[in-house]
Backbone:
């Protein structure tokens, strides 16, 4: 499954904006090239789109790489503001509407500090979702993925094909899973040689 496909429109050699569409749930992305810009790349949100400013000399491959980098940076900056439980529940509701047809309706969604080995958990009988406080400060798309994962459990309890089909609707599932796997790998102590008995 391709990660973060970006489709570029034709551009003029001047600094005309080039609209891009991303599969990241961030809305439209507009890349503006500038001959005056030598090295720096910057990005900001403008209404319902993200504007990325790059040097005119960049190749299309570099442009796509920098767009991904800047979208991740913006998402990380935005998620540093810790959502309260009420905002987290509202976000879960929006994600359910957008990706699950509004079918997953949790009774409660909250942060917890006693989950150090799991990113989230769900009790379908109670309709409760709990997210580990360790997710706070991670990119927004990662938190959204974990929320969607737990919302999907309100509809399908296990991790069978029906469950993963629900998550296929979220375009950043694989990327978010990779991010979380990287976090786990970086926290795991390096393997020590097996002890020998002589």
Residues:
């Amino acid at each position: 499954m391709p990660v973060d496909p970006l489709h570029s429109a034709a551009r003029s050699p001047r600094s005309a904006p080039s609209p891009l569409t991303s599969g990241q749930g961030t809305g439209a992305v507009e890349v503006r090239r500038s001959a005056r810009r030598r090295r720096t790349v910057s990005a900001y949100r403008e209404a319902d789109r993200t504007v990325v400013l790059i040097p005119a000399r960049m190749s299309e491959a570099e442009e796509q790489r920098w767009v991904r980098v800047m979208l991740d940076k913006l998402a990380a900056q935005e998620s540093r503001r810790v959502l309260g439980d009420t905002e987290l529940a509202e976000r879960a509701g929006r994600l359910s509407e957008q990706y699950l047809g509004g079918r997953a309706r949790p009774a409660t969604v909250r942060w917890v500090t006693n989950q150090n080995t799991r990113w989230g958990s769900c009790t379908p009988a109670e309709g409760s979702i709990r997210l580990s406080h360790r997710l706070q400060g991670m990119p927004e798309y990662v938190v959204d993925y974990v929320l969607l994962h737990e919302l999907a459990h309100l509809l399908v309890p296990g991790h069978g094909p029906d469950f993963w089909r629900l998550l296929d609707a979220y375009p950043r599932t694989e990327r978010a899973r990779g991010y979380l796997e990287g976090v786990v790998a970086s926290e795991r102590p390096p393997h020590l040689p097996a002890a020998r008995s002589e």
In short: The chain has two domains: 6-79, 85-186. The first strand starts at residue 6 and ends at 8. Residues 135 and 167 are 19 Å apart (CA to CA).
